[in-house]
Amino acid sequence: MSITREEIQHIAELARLHLSEEEITKFGGQLDSILQYVGQLNEVDTKGVEPTAQVSGLSDVWRSDDIIEWDKDEVEAALSQGERETGQVKVKRVL
Amino acid sequence: MNLNELTIKEARLKLDSGEMSSVDLTRACLKKIKEADKEINACLTVCEREALAEAGAADKRIKSGERGGLLGIPYLCKDILMTKGIRTTAASKILEHYVAPYDATVVARLREAGAVMLGKTNLDEFAHGASTENSAYGVTKNPYDLDRVAGGSSGGSAAAVAANMCLFALGSDTGGSIRQPASFCGVVGLKPSYGRVSRFGLLSMTSSTDVVGPLAKTVYDAALVLKAIAGDDARDATTAPEAIEAYEQAVGQPLKGLRVGLPAEYYLKDLDKEVAAHLAASAKKLEAAGAELVKVSLPYTKYGIPVYYIVTPSEVSSNLARFDGIAWGLSQNEASNLQDFYKKTRGAGFGPEAKRRIMLGTYALSAGYYDAYYKKAQAVRTLIIEDFNKAFKKVDVLLTPTSPHPAFKIGEQVNNPLAMYLEDIFVTGANLAGLPGISVPAGTVKVEGGKQMPIGAQVIGPRLRESLVIKVASALE
């Protein structure tokens, strides 16, 4: 199985990732060989095997939803690199 | 002997007796960093002023009678852990100027214990790699041979400990990233069980396997650091509620009656002959100390890498989605609309391996492929875990090589991502199953060019049995 150029462009679009023409070519080949390699998982019979998503052995861990107040300078530091206007974080036009 | 060459245990005696101060010790480490790091490139940030202030404060605490294992001990921190007021780059251009407004839990715990942070160490960008060659800020060189890699992704931390720039360092291990560089640099690297150490403030890579742990000069030192950073944390719901132990007390305990498993799948015929010989000697050492050697089999071992390289990119693609260029991190402001802004920011900010993993993960999770890749990998992950569970019914711990070979040459594998992925062949299993593992120096092998390079032996134990792997590892020193 081989990934087409269109598929690579589609995945990049889903991942919101700008790729140069050169990157599209390079990643296409590399993803192909990696996927071929991981394809060996198909040899394994996993009928009736439960998938593992996590290994902590824990479920439904609760804590109270307390608000932790931050200092003004901590808030400033957290948002220090974004574009700001009247104290708000500015984003690009959506439409 | 220079002060920076001391182990934590040795430095502790000198600090507590007043023979030296933490400021003396910190200065010795800073001096070593200045001398050696131009060549090695283990550190991305050195915070001399803050470190000397912390050392001064530790000296006051010691003078006032306070005692503590890490009080006044200088360390370096992998630059993927948040440090308040000191920049955290994850070795990525996308975070080049990022300063976190809070400390990771492990950093906060070390701060409270009075350890002195000297700075932040180099890594593969976002911890994606096995050689530190994926850092946006240049490769870290192996102190044993500057033409070779230090391993990765915690390569900066391993090289810094090996070069005596610090007394210990923090690393993170998602698929071998503490143990493999420890093996390449001849130091001890301890990967705790998943959930034993808080991930709060550790930049998320693969949330289901990430864990923080120490790189140190001795097993005792690594155990001491683990005790300081381990334990339940309300800020990380995946931390284990079980009480922590006095891990350093396990060092040197008798091995009589212990069963040590040698999994056939880790000792294949094509294993480097000298590595195999050193491992045989390690096994003999344990046998001489009273342990029984038992042959075991973990038949699904060979699927560890393929499972890891589906699970990891999938979680990476999701975790790195937060880098949207808004409010923090790199921004490409010339874009005209939001979609274009995201793409340009991420296209410019991520390096090749991060992009590769985002692409691979997005593909594996996309409609039509989810069952074939992600779900299949999760099911095989279960079989890998069952392999370990079955083995631990027969034996107490497993002894394996950490890496199939010593450190390779810089540049040798950069154009072959698959070859780089295979570097993790003996280390990913413990991550997929959430088990504790430790790499201990097991000798040196002669490489092309005539130099002697270190290799490591790995001890893997059942979940939350850190004391057991520490006990066995200490018998290998």
Average pLDDT score of chain A:
89
| Series of secondary-structure elements of chain B, N-terminal to C-terminal | HHEHEHEEEHEHEEHEHEHHHHEHHEEH
The total of helices of chain A stands at: 3
> What is the assembly state of the chains in this entry?
heterodimer
Total DSSP helices of chain B: 15
Greatest contact pair?
A: A-B, 54 and 71 residues
User: Quick one: how many beta strands of chain A?
Assistant: 2
Topology (elements, then pairings):
The complex is a heterodimer of chains A (95) and B (477).
Chain A: H1 5-14, H2 21-38, H3 72-78, E1 84-85, E2 88-89
Antiparallel strand pairs in A: 1-2
Chain B: H1 8-17, H2 22-40, E1 43-46, H3 48-63, E2 74-78, H4 105-113, E3 116-121, E4 141-142, E5 145-149, H5 155-162, E6 168-172, H6 179-185, E7 188-191, E8 212-216, H7 219-229, E9 259-263, H8 273-288, E10 292-296, H9 304-319, H10 338-349, H11 352-365, H12 371-394, E11 397-401, H13 417-422, H14 428-433, E12 437-446, E13 452-460, H15 466-474
Parallel strand pairs in B: 2-3, 2-6, 9-10, 9-11
Antiparallel strand pairs in B: 1-3, 4-5, 6-8, 7-8, 7-12, 11-13, 12-13
Helix pairs in contact in B: 2-3, 5-6, 9-11, 9-12
How is this structure best summarized?
The complex is a heterodimer of chains A (95) and B (477). Chain A contains three helices and two strands; from the N terminus they run αααββ.
Describe what you observe in this structure.
- The complex is a heterodimer of chains A (95) and B (477).
- Chain A contains three helices and two strands, in the order αααββ.
- Chain A has 95 residues and is mostly helical.
- Chain A has a domain at 5-43: Histone, subunit A, CATH 1.10.20.
- A two-stranded antiparallel ribbon of chain A has the order 1-2.
- The model of chain A has no long low-confidence stretch (mean pLDDT 89).
- Among the domains of chain B are: 3-250, Amidase signature (AS) enzymes, CATH 3.90.1300; 306-372, no CATH class.
- Chain B is built from 15 helices and 13 strands.
- In chain B, the strands form two sheets. An eleven-stranded mixed beta sheet of chain B has the order 1-3-2-6-8-7-12-13-11-9-10, sandwiched between helices. Chain B has a two-stranded antiparallel ribbon with strand order 4-5.
- In chain B, α4 links the parallel β2 and β3.
- The longest helix of chain B has 24 residues, at 371-394.
- At the A-B interface, α1, α2 and α3 of A face α9, α10, α11, α12 and α13 of B.
